[in-house]
Design goal:
heterodimer, A: 530 residues, alpha+beta, 4-stranded mixed β-sheet, 17 helices, 29% helix, globular, B: 314 residues, mainly alpha, 2 domains, two-stranded antiparallel sheet
């Protein structure tokens, strides 16, 4: 084969011209970034935060996710709201005053002059009545109906005053209903005009911000509410980016695209040691609780001694070190420190006791050990935790097989309505979210929840009785004892090995002053500039 | 040619229907309950049952498939029960973002890859050719998510030249372009190598054909021989590759969409599968399947147009 008789000058494609063209192309590609003040660069009047999910529904009556509440809390008002800080407490928001006149009656008076945007007028007690009663209306099918479990009615006294009437005392109301998702007040006129519920975008707002723009899966933009007469909003706009992956959010923060984000536990130590320029890294205790659950009705686990052997074979410090990078603390139950019902200690020590585990197994008829399946959600942290549990438990003769599931599959593992999968369920590494009242977490472990969310199938009459009593008990110390006892009953059953409450590490730029709940979750309406 | 086109379109429709039925079956076989995800942990069994009925999940599987295909035939992709918005609206919004990303990625890869391939072929066995070959194999070997991560670390985190996350302000084209550079770079880089190698191989073959030698003998300028005669034939395998490569590009886009927190159809499908959002999964899968089949149909048709022998093979 002959080589083409090529002369560079003839084809006008020389090495030099080729390199020039390539350099010019690359330069053109990079041009926008070189020295130009780009629109993504920080604007002092705009707050850019990351949330872990994209709001699906922005009607407070049917929204049930925390990331929806982050938006709703900024654009609507509640009678009372969580106070930013390190202690769980509340402050007045739309209410001028509020008091519990007896165990089933709460009297409130609204601040005059709070208006709904788009001409929907002033907020009145009728709006409060409408907002709370619609949640218990079966027509709405509100997922937060349980927050108002004992609401009978809201009686309107005059334009600004009313009385919340309960069918029976309900203590969680003050910490998990009124200042949380169930407490948002909407305009009766606006909701009725929208046909009974807001679809994608509410037609009016009453908070310091309004929703200016919704780009699903991309961002939600809140803008200053021009009709707001309270404490001025801290920013002209808040841009909320839905980013599920914490590592992506960390890079976004480091690139200067975000002002506030939660970070991964694995990054916390490094970032704390060497934070990005002009930024603050903090860690907050979380309300989540993680535990190893055992299906009490599975033939292999029906013997309490086998369950207790598993409890003793799980080494909590190793899990916390390997899966949580030593950032999280061990849990003693479902109530984290600082809340009513927190247990100071557990029945089974945090450190594994292999001798005891082996003895219990032998006593139960398994002198050569036992094979069990452990179901785990396929997220790095749970896989790591599962692997540690597997490796450590093997030393006690408990041979575990790890089965990984994506979220969709995992959350139906113990659900009776989804077929017979629950019958095969043996061990499960589980994690639930919670709220700042023990009632919220306690509700999932009652007899009625067996086969729904109570996958351990724990049925204890004393637990159920205490659950009902604690819900109504007004004496803080008595409530505290009740919830402690309930968690003790769970642990004593052998079906639960509480692991951790995790932790919420966050990072924010020095140009802002964040307003966070004690668990590190943002209260966007109170964020200000430094 | 017309007969070829009709046959090709008929085949495309059959492929789409079969693919959709298969995917519909597969997604329903995977365990998981959309009602639990939509309604959250606080939903009662009655509420879940009601949603199942509303979504038609209580009906026999065959009825569900038939109903879905019937709706599709009427141009209705259904309703997303999570957000209460039409599936078509959500999917096409995300599709725009993915198409822009995919076209930008393949566009810059072609702009660089084709000249590189021509250059290598023309100067074959020189140091420059070997350098281009080394570069091409190198970039093919690196997965796009690795390129995404490192380019993010370098250009966004360290140098702060380009933004790291999002797709830019709607309506601000310069901002959107800046947000597009890193993801398009990450996805397109491997394609530069593919295209360069493919164009080089085809060019080498074509440059030695009789008609090229004859053109050279007639004294035609070399640039005219390379770009007007040789490249026209040498580009055929690249056109085919691009047609079938759309599917791969969409899967690469998933990584870029996750790493750069960009909206897009790949990420939409991923999120919807995880949350068992069946209407959205099916809508998005249908649209991306149609896109894939459409791109292969177009590339086959272009091939058939450029090379009449292809028409005989279907």
């Amino acid at each position: 084969m002959s080589t083409p008789n090529m002369q560079f000058s003839k084809i006008r494609l020389s090495r030099r011209s080729f390199l020039k063209a390539s350099a010019a192309s690359a330069g053109w590609l990079m041009l926008p970034g070189l020295g130009m003040h780009s629109s993504w660069a920080q604007d002092p009047r705009v707050l850019r935060v990351r949330d872990y999910g994209d709001p699906q529904s922005l009607d407070p009556g049917i929204a049930s996710n925390l990331y929806e509440e982050h938006v709703n809390a900024a654009v609507h008002n509640k009678l009372i709201a969580y106070k930013p800080g390190t202690k769980w407490t509340w402050q007045l928001e739309a209410a001028q005053s509020i008091e519990q006149t007896d165990p089933t009656h709460i009297k409130f008076v609204l601040k005059p002059g709070i208006t709904f945007t788009n001409g929907f007028g002033e907020m009145t007690a009728e709006d409060v009545k409408f907002s709370y009663e619609r949640i218990i209306d079966p027509e709405l099918k509100s997922p937060i109906k349980g927050d108002w479990a004992t609401l009978e009615s809201v009686d309107v006294t005059d334009k600004y005053s009313g009385v919340i009437v309960l069918s029976k005392p309900f203590q969680p109301l003050w910490m998990t209903t009124l200042p949380y998702m169930g407490g948002n007040i909407v305009s009766k006129k606006a909701v009725e005009a929208a046909g009974g519920k807001f679809s994608a975008m509410p037609s009016c707002f009453s908070g310091p911000y309004v929703i200016k723009e919704r780009e699903p899966k991309q961002r939600t933009v809140l803008a200053r509410n021009p009709e707001w007469k309270g404490e001025p909003a801290g920013f002209d706009e808040i841009h909320i980016f839905p980013i599920d992956d914490e590592k992506t959010a960390e890079m976004g923060f480091e690139a200067g695209d975000l002002d506030y984000t939660r970070i991964s536990m694995s990054s916390y130590k490094n970032m704390k040691k060497k934070p990005p320029e002009n930024s603050v890294v903090e860690k907050y205790p979380s309300l989540y609780y993680v535990w190893l659950g055992m299906n009490m009705e599975h033939p292999k686990l029906s013997d309490e001694r086998v369950r207790r052997a598993v409890q003793y074979a799980v080494d909590i410090p190793s899990i916390l070190e390997a899966a949580y990078d030593g950032v999280a603390e061990p849990a003693t139950g479902y109530v984290p420190p600082g809340l009513v019902g927190h247990r100071p200690d557990t029945l089974v020590p945090f450190k594994a006791d292999f001798a005891k585990a082996k003895a219990l197994l032998a006593e139960a008829g398994y002198p050569d050990g036992i094979d069990l399946d452990l179901e785990v959600r396929n997220k790095a942290v749970y896989i790591a935790a599962g692997q540690v549990i597997q490796a450590v438990a093997a030393q006690a003769g408990i041979r575990m097989t790890l089965n990984l599931h994506d979220s969709g599959s995992f959350w139906s593992l113990g659900d009776e309505s989804k077929g017979d999968r629950w019958k095969k369920l043996q061990l499960v590494l589980n994690r639930f979210s919670s709220a700042p009242d023990p009632h919220y977490a306690a509700q999932w472990f009652t007899k009625e929840q067996v086969g729904v969310w109570n996958w351990e199938r724990f049925k204890n009459p004393e637990y159920n009785q205490l659950y009902e009593k604690a819900m109504a008990e007004g004496d803080k110390d008595k409530r505290d004892q009740m919830y402690r006892r309930m968690q003790e009953l769970m642990e004593a059953s052998g079906a639960y090995r509480f692991i951790t409450h995790e932790a919420v590490p966050v990072i924010y730029t020095g140009r802002i002053v964040p307003a966070l709940r004690p668990d590190g979750m943002p209260l966007l309406r109170y964020f200000t500039t430094a | 040619m017309l007969f070829y086109l009709l046959k090709r379109i008929g085949l495309a429709v059959v492929i789409v229907v079969v693919a959709v039925v298969l995917l519909y079956s597969m997604i329903h076989v995977v365990p998981g309950d959309p009602a639990s995800v939509i309604l959250g942990p606080r939903a009662t069994p009655e509420m879940k049952q009601e949603l199942h009925e509303l979504m038609g999940l209580d009906r026999p599987f065959v009825v569900q498939v038939a109903s879905f295909l019937g709706k599709v035939a009427r141009g209705n992709l259904g309703m997303d029960f999570f957000s209460q918005r039409p599936v078509a609206q959500i999917v096409f919004k995300q599709l725009d973002e993915t198409l822009v990303l995919v076209l930008a990625s393949i566009g810059w890869a072609m702009l660089l890859g084709i000249p590189l391939g021509c250059y290598s072929a023309v100067f074959r066995n020189t140091f420059s050719d070997k350098l281009v070959g080394f570069f091409s194999i190198g970039v093919i070997a690196v997965p796009s998510f690795v390129v995404a991560l490192y380019s993010l670390l370098l250009f966004a985190v360290t140098l702060k030249w380009l933004p790291a996350i999002g797709a830019g302000e709607p309506g601000q084209y310069m901002d959107q372009l800046q947000h597009l550079i890193l993801p398009a770079f990450a996805i397109g880089l491997g394609w530069v190598g593919y295209i360069a190698r493919l164009v080089r191989a085809s060019m080498l073959e074509v440059l030695n054909e009789n008609h090229i030698r004859r053109a050279r003998a007639f004294g035609l300028p070399e640039h005219m021989i390379v770009f007007q005669y040789a490249l026209k034939l040498a580009i055929l395998p690249t056109v085919t590759l691009l047609g079938t490569g759309i599917g791969r590009l969409i899967s690469s886009a998933v990584f870029a969409e996750i790493v750069f927190a960009r909206p897009g159809i790949g990420k939409l499908i991923f999120d919807s599968v995880v949350s068992r959002n069946y209407p959205l999964v099916m809508g998005a899968v249908l649209v991306s399947t149609v896109l894939f089949v459409l791109s292969t149909t177009i590339s086959d048709s272009v091939n058939a147009m450029l090379d009449p022998r292809v028409r005989e093979r279907l």
